[in-house]
Design a protein that fits this description.
binds ligand C2E; alpha/beta; binds magnesium ion; 54% helix; 461 residues; 8-stranded mixed β-barrel
Length: 461
Protein backbone atom coordinates (compact mmCIF):
# COMPACT_ATOMS: atom_id res chain seq x y z
CA UNK A 1 0.00 0.00 0.00
CA UNK A 2 2.92 2.37 0.46
CA UNK A 3 6.46 2.83 -0.75
CA UNK A 4 7.85 2.05 2.72
CA UNK A 5 5.92 -1.17 2.73
CA UNK A 6 7.43 -2.55 -0.45
CA UNK A 7 10.94 -1.43 0.45
CA UNK A 8 10.53 -3.33 3.71
CA UNK A 9 9.18 -6.36 1.90
CA UNK A 10 12.09 -6.39 -0.56
CA UNK A 11 14.65 -6.14 2.24
CA UNK A 12 12.92 -8.97 4.09
CA UNK A 13 13.04 -11.23 1.02
CA UNK A 14 16.73 -10.52 0.44
CA UNK A 15 17.65 -11.10 4.09
CA UNK A 16 15.72 -14.34 4.38
CA UNK A 17 17.14 -15.74 1.15
CA UNK A 18 20.70 -14.55 1.71
CA UNK A 19 21.77 -17.07 4.21
CA UNK A 20 24.28 -19.86 4.42
CA UNK A 21 23.05 -23.40 3.92
CA UNK A 22 24.96 -26.44 5.12
CA UNK A 23 24.19 -29.34 2.87
CA UNK A 24 26.17 -32.52 3.53
CA UNK A 25 29.77 -31.37 3.73
CA UNK A 26 29.12 -28.25 1.64
CA UNK A 27 28.61 -24.69 2.75
CA UNK A 28 26.48 -22.82 0.28
CA UNK A 29 25.99 -19.06 0.25
CA UNK A 30 22.90 -17.81 -1.47
CA UNK A 31 22.17 -14.22 -2.48
CA UNK A 32 19.33 -12.49 -4.25
CA UNK A 33 19.17 -9.67 -6.75
CA UNK A 34 15.70 -8.35 -7.36
CA UNK A 35 14.36 -6.34 -10.26
CA UNK A 36 11.13 -4.46 -9.62
CA UNK A 37 8.59 -2.85 -11.85
CA UNK A 38 5.42 -1.43 -10.42
CA UNK A 39 1.99 -1.41 -11.95
CA UNK A 40 0.35 0.88 -12.94
CA UNK A 41 3.33 3.30 -12.60
CA UNK A 42 5.53 1.46 -15.12
CA UNK A 43 2.71 0.11 -17.27
CA UNK A 44 -0.11 -2.41 -17.13
CA UNK A 45 0.82 -5.13 -19.61
CA UNK A 46 2.10 -8.23 -17.88
CA UNK A 47 4.75 -9.05 -20.47
CA UNK A 48 6.25 -5.54 -20.50
CA UNK A 49 6.21 -5.41 -16.69
CA UNK A 50 8.13 -8.69 -16.61
CA UNK A 51 10.60 -7.49 -19.21
CA UNK A 52 11.21 -4.30 -17.26
CA UNK A 53 11.63 -6.23 -14.01
CA UNK A 54 14.08 -8.57 -15.71
CA UNK A 55 16.07 -5.60 -17.07
CA UNK A 56 16.14 -4.05 -13.57
CA UNK A 57 17.35 -7.34 -12.09
CA UNK A 58 20.42 -7.24 -14.32
CA UNK A 59 21.01 -3.67 -13.22
CA UNK A 60 20.81 -4.88 -9.58
CA UNK A 61 23.40 -7.55 -10.36
CA UNK A 62 25.66 -5.04 -12.06
CA UNK A 63 25.51 -2.69 -9.12
CA UNK A 64 26.85 -5.17 -6.65
CA UNK A 65 24.31 -7.97 -6.17
CA UNK A 66 22.26 -8.71 -3.06
CA UNK A 67 20.12 -5.67 -3.63
CA UNK A 68 17.12 -4.51 -5.60
CA UNK A 69 16.67 -2.10 -8.47
CA UNK A 70 13.55 -0.29 -9.61
CA UNK A 71 12.71 0.10 -13.24
CA UNK A 72 12.98 3.79 -14.05
CA UNK A 73 10.68 4.72 -16.89
CA UNK A 74 12.05 8.26 -17.30
CA UNK A 75 15.63 6.98 -17.32
CA UNK A 76 14.92 4.28 -19.83
CA UNK A 77 13.05 6.75 -22.07
CA UNK A 78 16.13 8.99 -21.97
CA UNK A 79 18.36 6.03 -22.84
CA UNK A 80 16.05 5.16 -25.76
CA UNK A 81 16.09 8.80 -26.94
CA UNK A 82 19.89 8.87 -26.85
CA UNK A 83 20.13 5.65 -28.73
CA UNK A 84 17.78 7.04 -31.43
CA UNK A 85 19.87 10.21 -31.64
CA UNK A 86 23.09 8.20 -31.89
CA UNK A 87 21.58 6.26 -34.77
CA UNK A 88 20.61 9.52 -36.47
CA UNK A 89 24.14 10.93 -36.03
CA UNK A 90 25.68 7.72 -37.35
CA UNK A 91 23.51 8.01 -40.44
CA UNK A 92 24.37 11.70 -40.86
CA UNK A 93 28.08 10.89 -40.69
CA UNK A 94 27.64 8.16 -43.30
CA UNK A 95 25.75 10.72 -45.47
CA UNK A 96 28.74 13.12 -45.30
CA UNK A 97 26.72 15.75 -43.45
CA UNK A 98 29.69 16.67 -41.21
CA UNK A 99 32.20 19.31 -42.14
CA UNK A 100 34.96 21.35 -40.54
CA UNK A 101 34.82 25.11 -40.05
CA UNK A 102 38.06 27.00 -39.42
CA UNK A 103 38.76 29.85 -37.02
CA UNK A 104 41.92 31.99 -37.34
CA UNK A 105 44.45 32.57 -34.57
CA UNK A 106 46.71 35.62 -34.69
CA UNK A 107 49.80 37.01 -33.04
CA UNK A 108 48.29 40.34 -32.01
CA UNK A 109 51.54 42.28 -31.58
CA UNK A 110 52.82 41.59 -35.10
CA UNK A 111 49.42 41.00 -36.70
CA UNK A 112 50.69 37.73 -38.15
CA UNK A 113 48.18 34.99 -38.85
CA UNK A 114 49.53 31.98 -36.98
CA UNK A 115 46.99 29.24 -37.32
CA UNK A 116 43.50 27.92 -37.95
CA UNK A 117 41.49 25.78 -35.56
CA UNK A 118 39.25 23.17 -37.18
CA UNK A 119 35.83 23.01 -35.52
CA UNK A 120 33.33 20.35 -36.47
CA UNK A 121 29.80 21.20 -37.65
CA UNK A 122 26.85 19.04 -38.61
CA UNK A 123 25.16 20.56 -41.63
CA UNK A 124 21.69 19.09 -41.26
CA UNK A 125 19.61 19.10 -44.48
CA UNK A 126 16.61 20.63 -42.67
CA UNK A 127 17.86 22.08 -39.41
CA UNK A 128 20.92 23.81 -40.88
CA UNK A 129 24.26 24.09 -39.10
CA UNK A 130 24.35 22.26 -35.75
CA UNK A 131 27.08 23.09 -33.24
CA UNK A 132 29.33 20.37 -31.76
CA UNK A 133 28.01 20.73 -28.21
CA UNK A 134 24.66 19.46 -29.51
CA UNK A 135 25.98 16.18 -30.90
CA UNK A 136 29.47 15.39 -29.60
CA UNK A 137 28.23 14.53 -26.07
CA UNK A 138 25.83 11.98 -27.60
CA UNK A 139 28.53 10.08 -29.45
CA UNK A 140 30.83 10.20 -26.42
CA UNK A 141 31.82 6.72 -25.33
CA UNK A 142 30.59 5.04 -28.53
CA UNK A 143 32.71 3.67 -31.38
CA UNK A 144 31.56 6.67 -33.42
CA UNK A 145 33.61 9.01 -31.22
CA UNK A 146 36.85 7.49 -32.47
CA UNK A 147 35.59 7.16 -36.06
CA UNK A 148 34.58 10.83 -36.21
CA UNK A 149 37.82 11.83 -34.49
CA UNK A 150 39.88 10.03 -37.12
CA UNK A 151 37.89 11.67 -39.88
CA UNK A 152 38.56 15.12 -38.32
CA UNK A 153 42.31 14.41 -38.37
CA UNK A 154 42.21 13.28 -41.99
CA UNK A 155 40.20 16.34 -43.03
CA UNK A 156 42.52 18.66 -41.10
CA UNK A 157 45.62 17.17 -42.71
CA UNK A 158 44.02 17.39 -46.14
CA UNK A 159 43.19 21.07 -45.54
CA UNK A 160 46.79 21.73 -44.50
CA UNK A 161 47.96 20.16 -47.75
CA UNK A 162 45.49 22.19 -49.84
CA UNK A 163 46.65 25.46 -48.25
CA UNK A 164 50.32 24.46 -48.63
CA UNK A 165 49.69 23.77 -52.31
CA UNK A 166 48.41 27.33 -52.64
CA UNK A 167 51.56 28.62 -51.00
CA UNK A 168 49.83 29.42 -47.71
CA UNK A 169 52.10 28.42 -44.87
CA UNK A 170 49.99 28.16 -41.74
CA UNK A 171 49.38 25.84 -38.78
CA UNK A 172 46.15 23.84 -38.58
CA UNK A 173 44.90 22.48 -35.29
CA UNK A 174 42.24 19.85 -34.62
CA UNK A 175 40.46 18.99 -31.39
CA UNK A 176 40.95 15.52 -29.99
CA UNK A 177 38.59 14.02 -27.40
CA UNK A 178 39.97 12.19 -24.39
CA UNK A 179 38.74 8.79 -25.50
CA UNK A 180 40.11 9.27 -29.00
CA UNK A 181 43.48 10.39 -27.65
CA UNK A 182 43.76 7.43 -25.27
CA UNK A 183 42.55 4.91 -27.86
CA UNK A 184 45.16 2.29 -28.79
CA UNK A 185 44.83 3.09 -32.50
CA UNK A 186 45.37 6.86 -32.11
CA UNK A 187 49.08 7.07 -32.86
CA UNK A 188 48.93 4.83 -35.92
CA UNK A 189 45.90 6.60 -37.35
CA UNK A 190 47.59 9.96 -36.98
CA UNK A 191 50.76 8.64 -38.57
CA UNK A 192 48.78 7.18 -41.48
CA UNK A 193 46.96 10.47 -42.04
CA UNK A 194 50.23 12.45 -42.04
CA UNK A 195 52.01 9.94 -44.29
CA UNK A 196 49.33 10.29 -46.91
CA UNK A 197 50.83 13.67 -47.89
CA UNK A 198 54.61 13.38 -47.44
CA UNK A 199 55.17 16.99 -48.49
CA UNK A 200 53.34 18.60 -45.63
CA UNK A 201 55.21 19.79 -42.60
CA UNK A 202 53.92 17.89 -39.55
CA UNK A 203 55.25 20.76 -37.46
CA UNK A 204 52.33 22.75 -38.79
CA UNK A 205 49.78 20.28 -37.51
CA UNK A 206 48.60 20.74 -33.95
CA UNK A 207 46.47 18.57 -31.68
CA UNK A 208 44.28 20.37 -29.15
CA UNK A 209 44.04 17.98 -26.24
CA UNK A 210 41.86 18.65 -23.21
CA UNK A 211 43.78 19.05 -20.00
CA UNK A 212 41.16 16.83 -18.37
CA UNK A 213 42.36 13.88 -20.51
CA UNK A 214 45.40 13.72 -18.25
CA UNK A 215 43.40 13.26 -15.05
CA UNK A 216 44.11 9.76 -13.85
CA UNK A 217 46.13 9.03 -17.02
CA UNK A 218 49.10 11.33 -16.62
CA UNK A 219 51.74 8.71 -17.50
CA UNK A 220 49.85 7.44 -20.52
CA UNK A 221 49.00 10.90 -21.84
CA UNK A 222 52.62 11.99 -21.38
CA UNK A 223 53.75 8.99 -23.43
CA UNK A 224 51.29 9.64 -26.25
CA UNK A 225 52.18 13.33 -26.38
CA UNK A 226 55.90 12.54 -26.46
CA UNK A 227 55.46 9.98 -29.21
CA UNK A 228 53.32 12.33 -31.31
CA UNK A 229 55.68 15.26 -30.95
CA UNK A 230 59.05 13.52 -30.99
CA UNK A 231 58.38 10.84 -33.59
CA UNK A 232 55.74 12.49 -35.77
CA UNK A 233 56.68 16.13 -35.21
CA UNK A 234 53.17 17.41 -34.50
CA UNK A 235 52.52 20.18 -31.97
CA UNK A 236 50.36 19.84 -28.89
CA UNK A 237 48.14 22.41 -27.20
CA UNK A 238 46.35 21.96 -23.89
CA UNK A 239 42.81 23.16 -24.57
CA UNK A 240 40.33 24.78 -22.17
CA UNK A 241 43.07 25.32 -19.61
CA UNK A 242 41.66 26.57 -16.33
CA UNK A 243 38.34 24.75 -16.51
CA UNK A 244 39.30 21.48 -14.86
CA UNK A 245 42.18 20.74 -12.53
CA UNK A 246 44.67 23.27 -13.92
CA UNK A 247 47.15 21.10 -12.17
CA UNK A 248 50.70 22.30 -11.80
CA UNK A 249 51.97 18.76 -12.18
CA UNK A 250 50.16 18.55 -15.53
CA UNK A 251 51.88 21.74 -16.59
CA UNK A 252 55.23 20.47 -15.38
CA UNK A 253 55.02 16.96 -16.79
CA UNK A 254 52.97 17.17 -19.99
CA UNK A 255 55.26 18.08 -22.90
CA UNK A 256 52.67 20.39 -24.50
CA UNK A 257 53.91 23.36 -26.53
CA UNK A 258 50.97 25.67 -26.02
CA UNK A 259 48.39 26.44 -23.35
CA UNK A 260 44.98 27.68 -24.48
CA UNK A 261 43.23 29.79 -21.87
CA UNK A 262 39.55 29.00 -21.81
CA UNK A 263 37.16 31.62 -23.14
CA UNK A 264 35.02 31.57 -20.00
CA UNK A 265 37.81 33.41 -18.16
CA UNK A 266 38.90 35.60 -21.05
CA UNK A 267 35.45 37.04 -21.64
CA UNK A 268 35.26 38.69 -18.23
CA UNK A 269 38.81 40.02 -17.82
CA UNK A 270 37.50 43.57 -18.23
CA UNK A 271 34.81 43.05 -15.63
CA UNK A 272 35.72 40.53 -13.00
CA UNK A 273 38.99 40.95 -11.06
CA UNK A 274 38.89 37.20 -10.23
CA UNK A 275 38.87 36.20 -13.88
CA UNK A 276 41.58 38.76 -14.54
CA UNK A 277 43.69 37.13 -11.82
CA UNK A 278 43.14 33.63 -13.20
CA UNK A 279 44.15 34.66 -16.72
CA UNK A 280 47.09 36.65 -15.43
CA UNK A 281 48.17 33.67 -13.27
CA UNK A 282 47.95 31.24 -16.18
CA UNK A 283 49.97 33.60 -18.40
CA UNK A 284 52.62 33.82 -15.67
CA UNK A 285 52.74 30.03 -15.31
CA UNK A 286 53.12 29.43 -19.03
CA UNK A 287 56.05 31.85 -19.03
CA UNK A 288 57.68 30.09 -16.07
CA UNK A 289 57.24 26.73 -17.76
CA UNK A 290 58.44 28.11 -21.08
CA UNK A 291 55.28 27.34 -23.04
CA UNK A 292 53.45 29.55 -25.46
CA UNK A 293 50.03 30.82 -24.54
CA UNK A 294 46.94 31.79 -26.51
CA UNK A 295 43.65 33.26 -25.31
CA UNK A 296 40.36 32.00 -26.77
CA UNK A 297 37.10 33.93 -26.90
CA UNK A 298 38.70 37.32 -27.62
CA UNK A 299 35.56 39.19 -28.63
CA UNK A 300 36.66 42.83 -28.77
CA UNK A 301 39.69 44.99 -29.51
CA UNK A 302 39.69 46.02 -25.83
CA UNK A 303 40.00 42.39 -24.73
CA UNK A 304 43.01 42.02 -27.02
CA UNK A 305 44.65 45.18 -25.65
CA UNK A 306 44.11 43.96 -22.12
CA UNK A 307 45.69 40.61 -22.98
CA UNK A 308 48.67 42.37 -24.55
CA UNK A 309 49.10 44.34 -21.35
CA UNK A 310 48.97 41.06 -19.44
CA UNK A 311 51.70 39.54 -21.61
CA UNK A 312 49.60 37.26 -23.83
CA UNK A 313 50.24 38.03 -27.49
CA UNK A 314 48.26 35.29 -29.24
CA UNK A 315 44.51 35.36 -29.63
CA UNK A 316 41.56 33.62 -31.20
CA UNK A 317 38.02 34.92 -31.15
CA UNK A 318 35.20 36.84 -32.78
CA UNK A 319 37.26 40.06 -32.69
CA UNK A 320 39.39 38.43 -35.40
CA UNK A 321 36.85 36.18 -37.07
CA UNK A 322 34.11 33.68 -36.38
CA UNK A 323 34.75 30.12 -37.59
CA UNK A 324 34.18 29.91 -41.35
CA UNK A 325 33.66 27.30 -44.04
CA UNK A 326 36.75 25.82 -45.70
CA UNK A 327 35.74 27.36 -49.03
CA UNK A 328 35.85 30.86 -47.52
CA UNK A 329 39.34 30.48 -46.08
CA UNK A 330 41.54 31.52 -48.97
CA UNK A 331 39.62 34.77 -49.60
CA UNK A 332 39.63 35.57 -45.92
CA UNK A 333 43.37 34.99 -45.61
CA UNK A 334 44.08 37.14 -48.65
CA UNK A 335 41.93 39.99 -47.38
CA UNK A 336 43.03 39.74 -43.76
CA UNK A 337 44.16 43.04 -42.25
CA UNK A 338 45.78 43.05 -38.83
CA UNK A 339 44.03 45.04 -36.10
CA UNK A 340 46.04 48.27 -35.95
CA UNK A 341 45.08 49.00 -32.36
CA UNK A 342 46.93 45.80 -31.49
CA UNK A 343 49.93 46.12 -33.77
CA UNK A 344 50.58 49.75 -32.82
CA UNK A 345 50.38 49.02 -29.13
CA UNK A 346 53.66 47.95 -27.56
CA UNK A 347 53.26 47.51 -23.83
CA UNK A 348 56.31 45.33 -23.26
CA UNK A 349 58.58 48.23 -22.38
CA UNK A 350 55.98 50.11 -20.34
CA UNK A 351 56.66 50.67 -16.64
CA UNK A 352 54.22 48.80 -14.36
CA UNK A 353 52.30 51.95 -13.35
CA UNK A 354 51.65 52.88 -16.92
CA UNK A 355 50.48 49.34 -17.71
CA UNK A 356 48.09 49.41 -14.78
CA UNK A 357 46.70 52.80 -15.80
CA UNK A 358 46.10 51.56 -19.34
CA UNK A 359 44.30 48.53 -17.94
CA UNK A 360 42.16 50.73 -15.71
CA UNK A 361 41.27 52.90 -18.69
CA UNK A 362 40.12 49.82 -20.63
CA UNK A 363 38.10 48.56 -17.66
CA UNK A 364 36.56 51.96 -17.08
CA UNK A 365 35.59 52.31 -20.72
CA UNK A 366 33.99 48.89 -20.68
CA UNK A 367 32.07 49.70 -17.48
CA UNK A 368 30.91 53.04 -18.83
CA UNK A 369 29.67 51.60 -22.12
CA UNK A 370 27.70 48.97 -20.18
CA UNK A 371 26.36 51.62 -17.85
CA UNK A 372 25.05 53.75 -20.70
CA UNK A 373 23.52 50.78 -22.47
CA UNK A 374 21.83 49.82 -19.26
CA UNK A 375 20.46 53.33 -18.73
CA UNK A 376 19.09 53.48 -22.24
CA UNK A 377 17.67 49.97 -21.99
CA UNK A 378 14.22 48.89 -20.86
CA UNK A 379 12.71 49.93 -17.52
CA UNK A 380 12.31 46.35 -16.28
CA UNK A 381 16.04 45.87 -16.48
CA UNK A 382 16.63 48.99 -14.43
CA UNK A 383 14.79 47.60 -11.46
CA UNK A 384 17.60 45.10 -11.16
CA UNK A 385 20.62 47.31 -10.41
CA UNK A 386 22.92 44.28 -10.38
CA UNK A 387 22.41 44.02 -14.12
CA UNK A 388 24.37 47.21 -14.60
CA UNK A 389 27.41 45.34 -13.36
CA UNK A 390 29.87 48.17 -12.64
CA UNK A 391 32.82 46.52 -10.92
CA UNK A 392 35.22 49.43 -11.14
CA UNK A 393 34.99 49.87 -7.35
CA UNK A 394 36.42 46.36 -6.88
CA UNK A 395 39.42 47.26 -9.03
CA UNK A 396 40.00 50.41 -7.00
CA UNK A 397 40.06 48.30 -3.82
CA UNK A 398 42.70 46.09 -5.42
CA UNK A 399 44.76 49.14 -6.32
CA UNK A 400 44.92 50.06 -2.65
CA UNK A 401 46.36 46.66 -1.75
CA UNK A 402 48.85 46.78 -4.57
CA UNK A 403 50.56 50.00 -3.42
CA UNK A 404 51.71 50.88 -6.89
CA UNK A 405 50.23 54.38 -6.65
CA UNK A 406 49.98 57.14 -4.06
CA UNK A 407 47.02 56.71 -1.81
CA UNK A 408 45.77 60.27 -2.38
CA UNK A 409 45.46 59.62 -6.10
CA UNK A 410 43.57 56.37 -5.50
CA UNK A 411 41.23 58.20 -3.13
CA UNK A 412 40.56 60.85 -5.75
CA UNK A 413 39.82 58.14 -8.28
CA UNK A 414 37.51 56.46 -5.82
CA UNK A 415 35.65 59.70 -5.05
CA UNK A 416 35.22 60.48 -8.71
CA UNK A 417 33.84 57.00 -9.34
CA UNK A 418 31.46 57.27 -6.38
CA UNK A 419 30.15 60.58 -7.79
CA UNK A 420 29.52 58.92 -11.10
CA UNK A 421 27.65 56.04 -9.48
CA UNK A 422 25.56 58.43 -7.44
CA UNK A 423 24.41 60.28 -10.55
CA UNK A 424 23.62 56.95 -12.22
CA UNK A 425 21.50 55.92 -9.25
CA UNK A 426 19.62 59.23 -9.31
CA UNK A 427 18.99 58.83 -13.01
CA UNK A 428 17.70 55.32 -12.50
CA UNK A 429 15.22 56.34 -9.82
CA UNK A 430 14.07 59.31 -11.92
CA UNK A 431 13.56 57.00 -14.87
CA UNK A 432 11.55 54.57 -12.76
CA UNK A 433 9.37 57.31 -11.24
CA UNK A 434 8.66 59.03 -14.54
CA UNK A 435 8.68 55.78 -16.56
CA UNK A 436 10.97 57.36 -19.15
CA UNK A 437 14.46 57.03 -20.51
CA UNK A 438 17.24 59.46 -19.52
CA UNK A 439 17.39 62.69 -21.52
CA UNK A 440 20.27 63.94 -23.62
CA UNK A 441 21.16 66.34 -20.78
CA UNK A 442 21.32 63.50 -18.26
CA UNK A 443 23.67 61.57 -20.50
CA UNK A 444 25.86 64.63 -21.07
CA UNK A 445 26.21 65.02 -17.33
CA UNK A 446 27.42 61.44 -17.14
CA UNK A 447 29.87 62.02 -19.96
CA UNK A 448 31.40 64.93 -18.04
CA UNK A 449 31.91 62.81 -14.95
CA UNK A 450 33.38 60.03 -17.05
CA UNK A 451 35.82 62.49 -18.64
CA UNK A 452 36.86 63.61 -15.18
CA UNK A 453 37.73 60.03 -14.28
CA UNK A 454 39.60 59.62 -17.53
CA UNK A 455 41.65 62.75 -16.97
CA UNK A 456 42.55 61.52 -13.50
CA UNK A 457 43.87 58.36 -15.12
CA UNK A 458 45.57 60.54 -17.72
CA UNK A 459 47.76 62.10 -15.04
CA UNK A 460 49.82 58.94 -15.23
CA UNK A 461 50.09 58.78 -19.01
P1 LIG B 1 37.12 24.66 -28.20
O1 LIG B 1 38.06 23.72 -28.80
O2 LIG B 1 37.53 25.35 -26.95
O3 LIG B 1 36.78 25.70 -29.34
C1 LIG B 1 36.48 27.04 -29.12
C2 LIG B 1 35.00 27.30 -29.17
O4 LIG B 1 34.79 28.66 -28.88
C3 LIG B 1 34.37 27.08 -30.54
O5 LIG B 1 33.04 26.66 -30.31
C4 LIG B 1 34.39 28.47 -31.13
O6 LIG B 1 33.42 28.67 -32.15
C5 LIG B 1 34.06 29.28 -29.91
N1 LIG B 1 34.54 30.64 -30.01
C6 LIG B 1 35.66 31.09 -30.60
N2 LIG B 1 35.81 32.40 -30.45
C7 LIG B 1 34.78 32.83 -29.71
C8 LIG B 1 34.38 34.11 -29.21
O7 LIG B 1 35.03 35.13 -29.42
N3 LIG B 1 33.24 34.14 -28.48
C9 LIG B 1 32.50 33.03 -28.23
N4 LIG B 1 31.38 33.15 -27.51
N5 LIG B 1 32.85 31.81 -28.69
C10 LIG B 1 33.97 31.72 -29.42
P2 LIG B 1 32.41 25.43 -31.10
O8 LIG B 1 32.87 25.41 -32.52
O9 LIG B 1 30.95 25.44 -30.83
O10 LIG B 1 33.08 24.19 -30.39
C11 LIG B 1 32.81 23.91 -29.05
C12 LIG B 1 33.71 22.82 -28.55
O11 LIG B 1 33.42 21.59 -29.20
C13 LIG B 1 35.19 23.07 -28.83
O12 LIG B 1 35.72 23.94 -27.87
C14 LIG B 1 35.75 21.67 -28.73
O13 LIG B 1 35.96 21.31 -27.40
C15 LIG B 1 34.61 20.84 -29.27
N6 LIG B 1 34.90 20.50 -30.67
C16 LIG B 1 34.70 21.22 -31.80
N7 LIG B 1 35.12 20.55 -32.89
C17 LIG B 1 35.60 19.36 -32.44
C18 LIG B 1 36.19 18.23 -33.08
O14 LIG B 1 36.37 18.17 -34.29
N8 LIG B 1 36.56 17.18 -32.25
C19 LIG B 1 36.38 17.22 -30.91
N9 LIG B 1 36.76 16.16 -30.17
N10 LIG B 1 35.86 18.28 -30.27
C20 LIG B 1 35.47 19.34 -31.03
MG1 LIG C 1 39.97 23.71 -29.25
MG1 LIG D 1 38.95 25.71 -25.83
Amino acid sequence: QSTEQYYELLERIIISISTTYFIDEYTIDIGASIGVSISPLDGEQLDSLLRQADFSMYKAKQTGKNNFNFFDLAHSKEAARRSMKLKEIRQAFANHEFCLYYQPKVHMASGKLIGLEALIRWVHPEKGVISPIQFLPIIEGSDLEVTVGNWVIEEGVLQLKKLNDLGIDIEISVNVSSMQFLDASFYNNLKKALNRYPNINANHFQLEVLESSAIGNLEQVTKIISACSEELGVKIALDDFGTSYSSLSHLRQLPADTIKIDQSFVQDILVDPNDYSIVSGVIGLTKSFNRSVIAEGVETTAHGLMLLLMGCENAQGYAISKPMKACELVDWIQEYKPNQSWTEFSPIEMPPQMKRVKQLALILNHCFTNMKEYLQGSLEEKINVDKMGCHFGRWIRLLKQEQLFEESWINQLNQSHEDLLQVVEELISNCIVSASRPTERDLNKLDTLFEELQSLLGQYH
